[in-house]
Amino acid sequence: MTTNVAECINSCLKFARQLPLMTLAEFIRNMLQKWFHDRHTAAQSMRHRLTDAAHGVIQKRVEKCNYMTVNAVDWNIFSVKHKGEQWTVNLARKTCTCNKFQMDFLPCSHALAAARERNLDFTSLCADYYKRETLIDAYSVPIMPVGHPSSWVVPSDIAA
What we know:
- Helix 2 (21-44) packs antiparallel against helix 6 and helix 3 crosses helix 5 (109-117).
- With 160 residues, the chain is of the alpha+beta class.
- Helices cover 44% and strands 11% of the residues.
- It has helices spanning 5-12, 21-44, 52-65, 100-104, 109-117, 132-138, 156-159; strands spanning 69-72, 77-82, 85-90, 95-96.
- The chain has a 4-stranded antiparallel beta sheet with strand order 1-2-3-4.
- A hairpin with a 4-residue loop joins strand 1 and strand 2.
């Protein structure tokens, strides 16, 4: 999320930039085809409902929430205390006064403590783009080979 995508792709094309235009285009298509296949395969092999990266973040936050004191204000709002500090969590709005919840759309340790108090599945608090199924869907449409130019069907108004 912090790396410039153009810079990333540009570094992958370091060698290919010297190729003729059509060869460069085919190189890029092959590269993307491989990336999509590899990422789709990796997503399908993930064992959790969240992506591996999101699951790792949540696991670290769960460890922190074990030592917090939670007091319900109502069904959705909780006061969470730890080491003399206090935060307010609203599970319905997916907010916490620490602002982590709103910034990365994953529940902070305070929200996880509140969710545990309410016996709520924490994955329901995560943005959809952190979910395994969303990642699988993102890479589900393969990038197909274009075939030899002699097999292309080119409309007559373009071919002229």
